[in-house]
Specification:
With 185 residues, the chain is mainly alpha-helical. The chain is built from 6 helices and 4 strands, in the order αβαβααββαα. It is elongated.
Length: 185
């Protein structure tokens, strides 16, 4: 059982900030790195993940699309019609590395460029300084909130959980007396 990326990433980042292991204003100075993986398709999805606490974004499906994947859902059958996920030489004829490498490289460069353009538009110099208030989310028609308001636990201060204070949601998860987590010193 998993947690959707936005909720899971923001929660883990907030707990690590509250535990004093992550720097909330400059993630590059953190003691623990977070890698976001899942539905990283565009420069905006990278930017949003950085705002939620990610240090690195992994992408898989989007790169398959840049190779020419048509989502035939035959990956595990050795019958992929585009030749991407097969060893069958009759099907791999369309998978020409000399042309596909250009498509993959262009996709990567343009995706990173789009993220950098968003950073420039918001006045951010580094991925590590992208904050929740830089991204808005529509709540309903005519109403939006920045990610810090949507995920209020992101407003935790560095080391705050160690003092027994902070957002209620994080304090509930941090409760060391509930016999779920054993703490060692």
């Amino acid at each position: 059982v998993g947690t959707p990326l936005n909720e899971g990433l923001s929660f883990v980042h907030a707990v690590l900030v509250g535990a004093g292991l992550r720097n909330p204003t400059d993630k590059s100075k953190s003691k623990v790195a977070l890698i976001a993986s899942g539905k990283v398709l565009s420069g905006f999805s990278m930017y949003k993940n950085f705002a939620l606490g990610a240090d690195v974004c992994n992408a898989a499906r989007s790169f398959l699309f840049s190779l020419g994947c048509i989502q035939a859902l035959k990956c595990n059958t050795n019958t992929c019609p585009t030749g991407i996920t097969t060893q069958n030489p009759d099907l791999t004829w369309g998978l020409d590395p000399s042309t596909k490498q250009v498509r993959v490289a262009n996709f990567h460069l343009e995706t990173v460029h789009a993220c950098v353009e968003l950073m420039q538009a918001t006045g951010v110099d580094s991925w590590s300084n992208i904050q929740p208030h830089h991204v808005n989310k529509r709540i309903q028609i005519g109403q939006s909130r920045h990610l810090g308001e949507v995920y209020s636990h992101l407003m935790v201060k560095e080391g705050e959980l160690l003092q027994g204070s902070g957002p209620e949601r994080l304090l509930t998860a941090w409760d060391l007396e509930d016999n779920i987590v054993a703490r060692t010193v």
